[in-house]
């Protein structure tokens, strides 16, 4: 694992698109035909598909894909010692508008797959590694507000909406200079695009200034769940990697814990207990985030 560089200028840096890693001439990235012919389906959704291609590559592709996922992964790998899949290519096919992220296939299993069968000692080992990872991630300096890489708008999450609006300020995802500005935008979107919570938005307007205050912009994974953590148990140790970086951004400091708690779903196992060993609990904020996410998405 590489040492993190000491000179970080994060907010004006990202790889240009299309991107191809040409540093290793022995690497032959898979062709479109190889990708679409793969029967090794790892995950599939309405907007994208993830497949394995041979023993070396994983490819995520689809029209609904945002290539900032790969840009985020490259940026984190460049500016920290956190293990992420190496990105070999990021591009869009201009004919069919399908986007591709071609990345390294890392060894191991997701923590979601491994969790039921590992011991408490192994869980402790994983959580120590994860706490170090998250502390390093959260130390990455913000450009001064709440935003994505290169001061781009925040991704979905609490900014979720479906529809169009003639007022660009309502559909803007930032960047936001203050937490108050972000809170106002979240509630404005909720009231505009979610008919069923228009009345409740007034209640949120009273509550948010009391709950969501004094949370600095903190670089967050954005979807910190067991399914997005890879573990590879070795003799006496474990390698840990984070995948799926599409939601990463400078969110308020409560965001990763609150959304990770949401990812516990029915709390069918003890992950929520161990989660507090990884991220400092935000018990005041998390219930409100969970309530809002449920209303925005379900």
TrEMBL record:
One of its GO terms (molecular function) is kinase activity. The keyword Amino-acid biosynthesis does not apply. It comes from the Eukaryota. Transmembrane segments: none annotated. Gene3D superfamilies: 3.90.1200.10. Keywords: Kinase, Transferase. This is Kinase-like protein. It comes from Aureobasidium pullulans. The lineage of its organism: Eukaryota, Fungi, Dikarya, Ascomycota, Pezizomycotina.
């Amino acid at each position: 694992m590489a040492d993190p560089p000491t000179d970080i200028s994060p907010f004006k840096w990202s790889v240009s698109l299309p991107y191809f890693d040409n540093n290793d001439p022995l690497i032959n990235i898979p062709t479109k035909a190889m990708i679409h012919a793969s029967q090794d389906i790892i995950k599939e959704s309405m907007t994208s598909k993830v497949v394995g291609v041979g023993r070396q590559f994983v490819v995520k592709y689809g029209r609904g894909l945002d290539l900032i996922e790969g840009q985020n992964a490259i940026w984190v790998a460049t500016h920290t010692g956190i293990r992420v899949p190496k990105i070999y290519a990021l591009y869009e096919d201009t004919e069919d508008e399908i986007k591709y992220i071609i990345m390294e296939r890392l060894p191991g299993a997701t923590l979601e797959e491994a969790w039921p069968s590992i011991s408490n000692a192994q869980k402790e080992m994983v959580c120590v590694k994860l706490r170090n990872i998250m502390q390093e991630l959260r130390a990455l300096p913000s450009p001064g507000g709440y935003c994505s890489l290169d001061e781009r708008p925040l991704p979905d999450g609490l900014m979720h909406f479906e529809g169009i609006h003639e007022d660009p300020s309502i559909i803007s995802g930032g960047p936001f200079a203050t937490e108050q500005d972000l809170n106002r935008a979240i509630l404005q979107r909720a009231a505009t695009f979610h008919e069923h919570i228009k009345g409740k938005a007034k209640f949120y307007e009273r509550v948010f200034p009391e709950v969501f205050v004094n949370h600095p912009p903190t670089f967050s994974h954005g979807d910190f769940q067991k399914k997005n953590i890879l573990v590879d148990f070795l003799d006496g140790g474990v390698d840990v990697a984070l995948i799926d970086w599409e939601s990463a951004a400078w969110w308020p400091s409560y965001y990763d814990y609150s959304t990770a708690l949401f990812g516990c779903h029915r709390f069918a196992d003890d992950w929520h207990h161990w989660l507090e060993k990884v991220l400092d609990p935000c018990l005041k904020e998390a219930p409100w985030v969970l309530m809002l996410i449920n209303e925005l998405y379900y």
